[in-house]
Amino acid sequence: MSRTTDYLKILKDGVWTQNTGFVALLGLCPLLATSNSVINGLGLGLATLLVLLMSNVAISLIRNLVRPEVRIPVFVLVIACVVTAVELAMHAFLPGLYTVLGIFIPLIVTNCCVIGRAEAFAFKQSVARSAVDGIATGLGFLLALVLLGAMREVVGQGTLFSQADLLFGAWGQHLTLHLVDDYRGFLLAILPPGAFIGLGLLIALKNIIDARIQRRAAAQPTAVLQEARA
Amino acid sequence: MRFKTVTSPHILQDTRVGQIMRRVLYAMLPGIAALTWFFGWGILINLTIATTVALLAETAMLAARGKPLALHLGDSSAIVTAWLLAVALPPLAPWWMTMIGVLSAIIVAKHLYGGLGYNPFNPAMIGYVVLLISFPREMSTWLIPHGLDQPQAMTFLETARAIFNSELPARFAPDALTGATPLDVLRTRLGLGKTVTEIRNSPVFGIVSGHGWEWAALGFLLGGLWLVYTRAADWRIPAGMLGGIAVISSTFYLINPQHYAPPWFHLWSGAAIFGAFFIATDPVTACATPRGRLIYGAGIGILVYIIRGFGGYPDGVAFSVLLMNIAAPTIDLYTQPKVFGARHR
Question: pLDDT grade, residue B237 (50/70/90)?
Fold first, then answer.
């Protein structure tokens, strides 16, 4: 296997096959709690992506120095440091988003997918592969957050990218799309039950897509065979 | 001489699903008539909207799932769901609200879980709770019943315009049409420190409970008793539920009659009677064992009282039914009847 295809497989695993939000169902707490709008989802997703990348790289770097018996406390310390750094950076550069996301930024430290990737991947793999895995897992989580956020925002408020200025500065105010004029709002989608129902629907959608891909893959060889016979 | 011999089954009662469902519909008629008398055309318009949407959604979902249409549409279960929901909605609920409620009931609560017989939650109550959570303001705006401060009832056209165009007739003052329900009045005034006797003097109350509401409750009681008589509903569930309400409300009433409404008021107001005979008795989502059904009913009754007395909503039948739906399989597990002759250690 060449290096590129290897990295592509890690990427595909992280974003689709082993997606944190839709398949592994790790980190449900931030996923369900902060996905009430696209921007909130995007903000927390990017922060988690950054944490995953840095913690994976750091843990992969020290994997030969740390004895396996003490690896979990070491993971916790590394992740806590990284999260604190990201939190302080967000407080400094994106104060609006920092206020909106509130407790969920420090809580990235408890996101099981961060320590999960450290244990399952970074502690056993090279730095480059761990970095790719961190990005892939982070992108998968980001995808889940943004999709769920978009769904809940459209159904709940009839908008997309509201409060984009929190993330992109002043010009972000023009990004907000009002899809339906004079929308009454559908409170259920914004409230926690809406997060559970929305996540369920997205998982169902992913399963449908997977089943379709599988059926197509199963149909392919027979077609080739028939062609060969003809 | 030869006697005519017949093999079992000897009970020649028609117990097909469709027959039972249609009995539920007939049994609702007296209550619906009373509601229409006191709250006007809106009830009937809501019923029509709900039935139409439910049949369309049911047809679409059955077609999408590749099920035989005639068989499943013929069992009338979608109409029952639609009626149960429509009766619980405020008479002037905008048409899109009724539609959203019915769609969540039929599509999400019924067909996404596998259709009739597989749904763990009462579909009509899911539809109701979706609306109650999403549109609290619209859901708590009830018409003032006929014969109470209201000079003339709204005509059919005025009601239709209110439902489809959200236009209230100009001849009424804005707050002359709608008001708080009796349970809402009780809750807010108790919160203000009034005693039950003082609150009961308010004109929204009638002989036993709310003016107008008590007659609807009587209608539903008659229909419900007929359902029990024809065995379309098991007596244990309404008995358990009303018994639960009676026991817990009597306890609190005896402790402090000035702060807690009497048991007859609780039994006779809100959706207690309607819920006991029509909502809780749904054979799919209720318990299946005889003892389990008593416990299930009592659980609903106690939860209704707790939500009314100490919760954030004036009435709690929908939430209580859904909570007990969750508990139903567990209750069934622990109330299996003993097999005759079997020994238990």
Answer: very high
**Of A146, A164, A149, the residue nearest A194 (C-alpha):** A149
- Which contiguous run of DSSP H or E holds residue B64? helix B42-64
Q: Which of A5-19, A83-97, B148-162 has the lowest mean pLDDT?
A: B148-162
Residue A187 to residue B134, Cβ atoms within 8 A? yes
Closest CA to A133 of A41, A223, A15, A3: A15
Chain A: residue whose CA lies nearest to B108: A197
Residue A94 has φ and ψ, to the nearest 5°, of -130, 65
Tell me the per-residue pLDDT of B162-195, one tens digit each, with 9 for 90 and over. 888 877 777 776 667 777 788 888 888 888 888 8
Annotate A125-139 with b (16+ C-beta within 10 A) or e (fewer). Answer: beeebbbbbbbbbbb
ipTM: 0.77
- The string of DSSP letters for B206-233 reads -SSSBTTHHHHHHHHHHHHHHHHHTTSS
Contact assignment for B134 to A197 by CB distance below 8 Å = no
| B50 in Cβ contact with B97 (< 8 Å) | no
**Contact residues, chain B, for A196 at CB < 8 Å:** none
Q: Which amino acid does the sequence have at B261?
A: A
Cross-chain Cβ contact B133/A184 below 8 Å: no
Q: Which of B108, B133, B135 sits opposite A191 (nearest CB)?
A: B133
Contacts of A191 in chain B (CB under 8 A): 133
Across chain B, mean pLDDT equals 88
d(CA B90, CA B143): 7
User: Closest Cα of chain B to A187: distance in Å?
Assistant: 4
Q: Is A191 on the interface with B (CB under 8 A)?
A: yes
d(CA B199, CA B189): 7
C-alpha to C-alpha distance for B200 and B185, rounded to whole angstroms: 10
CA distance B244 to B302: 5
Domains of chain A, residue spans: 3-229
Chain A residues 167-186 within an 8 A CB cutoff of chain B: 184-186
Tens-digit pLDDT profile for residues A46-77: 999 999 999 999 999 999 999 989 999 999 99
| More confident: B234 or B172 | B234
How far is A185 from chain B, CA to nearest CA, in Å? 8
